[in-house]
Design brief:
Number of domains: 3
CATH topology of the largest domain: Rossmann fold
CATH superfamily of the largest domain: P-loop containing nucleotide triphosphate hydrolases
Number of helices: 15
Distance between the termini: 58 Å
Structural class: alpha/beta
CATH architecture of the largest domain: 3-Layer(aba) Sandwich
Oligomer: single chain
Strand content: 15-25%
Strand order of the largest sheet: 3-4-2-1-5-6
Helix content: 25-40%
Length: 472
């Protein structure tokens, strides 16, 4: 079955960046056919060496292609390899009737000789143009993560699309916020069979009603009626939910390491950050909303005062370098120091909040804090297991879903992971708010009873920062 024998199917030509971004991309086109130009294989070959995430993805792509092509004759390759040849492939539960074709012959050059741009990109565009001429009854579509590549294709009147199969959501506005405002008549519609009780200093309500079906474990509930009703969903199903009144950390006597909540979202963040039954917390918010400060204050409280965790570990993606940090001088912590300014700023603020009597005591407290707070690089996380650690992943929006999985699966018994990020500040190439690893875990963990998420909305940094954020 050659390309000319199946005009009823679409033919997707894959750019190199699609395979690097998602090694399993070839299994996400279901019944449609795929075409890989020879220049794409050459670019993959050039990128296979190294220990970076890109190199690992390229090697995985090569393994998939090798398994597809294994034991296939030259005629089979020219007729297209059925993608169903790999039984354990990702997305194998879906019907994979498509075939994979490789470029096996030189296609006539149809691009203008004066066409500017990268040679590899032009070679791929030439392949798409030639296939469109040879297969007039087949819709040939270029799939690329490169915006400029798609623009060049549009200039040549070629069909081009972004790769969407890795998107967690169709629209980032649909992302779970972690909080829900209850209507003013909530108690009128949900208190018919309500039960309430207390355990130590905690108050619980068992509620049934129409809104319960839309709740998730550890979701934050509140009523805008001046009564300051704030509660946390503890358990829920389609009919009944158990909610607990939230503790108010806005009061001075309930401060955590000298920090009090400034608004409703911060109060909920402290509730789940200090809850030993919540193992995984995600905090979203713009700059100045207090994500890092709250996570660090809760970590110090539970590590030094409560002695629940052995130490605090803080890490983040080293953007813009994003590769090996070995070129910088010093130890691992010294190499990570340029990217950990937020940690040091917040540690200094928390140290000053303790109101020590003199400079010597301030220095002693700072040394104590630094002995219990460790800075680690993502590059050395593979293979490790963290026991009784409080792990803060800063700038998590720059991580891919695969990197996020690698980090979270490092957690051993007694470890709590806090993911902090701002989806409007993604620096990793080809990542978007809908494909970020942070979006991925927020969506996948929202139904788990030991996880919680909250989106911080109000900046509390300073009046200058708030004005700049709103007007610039």
């Amino acid at each position: 079955m050659t390309l000319h024998d199946c005009p009823q199917k679409k033919l997707f030509v894959l750019d190199t960046n699609v395979l690097i971004h998602d090694p399993s991309a070839i299994f996400h086109f279901q019944e449609h056919n795929l075409f890989i130009p020879m220049v794409v294989l050459e670019e993959l070959d050039h990128a296979k060496k190294g220990l970076s995430e890109v190199s690992r993805n390229v090697r995985q792509v090569s393994r998939f292609l090798d398994e597809l092509i294994r034991d296939a004759s030259q005629k089979n390759i020219q007729d297209g390899l059925p993608l169903s040849r790999i039984e354990h492939a990702p997305n194998a539960e879906h019907k994979l009737d498509g075939r994979l074709y490789f470029q096996t012959q030189q296609l006539s050059s149809l691009l203008p000789k004066t066409m500017p741009g990268h040679l590899a990109d032009n070679s791929i565009l030439n392949v798409v143009l030639a296939l469109s001429k040879e297969l007039p009854n087949t819709q040939v579509i270029l799939v690329s993560k490169d915006i400029n590549m798609r623009i060049k294709a549009a200039a040549l009147e070629l069909a081009a699309e972004d790769y969407h199969s890795d998107e967690t959501l169709d629209d980032i506005d649909l992302l779970f916020s972690g909080a829900s405002a209850l209507p003013a008549n909530f108690w009128d519609t949900h208190s018919g069979q309500m039960q309430s009780w207390q355990e130590k200093d905690r108050t619980f309500y068992k509620i049934s009603g129409p809104l319960v079906a839309d709740w998730y474990p550890n979701q934050y509930l509140y009523i805008e009626d001046g009564e300051n009703f704030e509660a946390i969903v503890r358990t829920c199903n389609s009919e009944v939910a158990v909610i607990e009144l939230a503790k108010d950390y806005r009061l001075n006597h309930a401060n955590i390491w000298g920090i009090t909540a400034k608004n409703r979202e911060q109060n909920f963040a402290l509730n789940v950050l200090l809850d030993p039954l919540v193992d995984f917390v995600t905090l979203l918010g713009t700059a100045g909303t207090g994500k890092t400060l709250l996570a660090l204050a809760a970590g110090l409280h539970q590590t030094i005062e409560k002695k629940i965790y052995h130490e605090i570990i803080m890490t983040r993606e080293t953007i813009p370098v994003g590769e090996d940090i070995g070129f910088l001088p010093g130890s691992e912590e010294e190499k990570m120091a340029p990217w950990m300014g937020a940690l040091m700023d917040n540690l200094e603020l928390l140290n000053n909040r303790l109101e020590q009597n003199n400079h010597w005591e301030n220095e002693a407290t700072h040394n104590l804090l630094m002995n219990r707070v460790k800075i680690r690089s993502l590059n050395f996380m593979r293979g490790r297991t963290f026991l009784n650690r409080y792990l803060i992943i800063d700038e998590a929006q720059n991580l891919t879903p695969k990197q996020m999985k690698t980090l979270i699966t490092r957690a051993g018994p007694g470890t709590k992971i806090i993911c902090i990020g701002n989806l409007t500040q993604i620096d990793t190439p080809y990542l978007t708010p809908t494909t970020s690893g942070l979006t991925y875990v927020v969506d996948r963990f929202k139904t788990w009873e030991h996880s919680a998420h909250i989106t911080l909305k109000r900046g509390e940094r300073s009046r200058l920062a708030d004005f700049a954020s709103n007007t610039l």
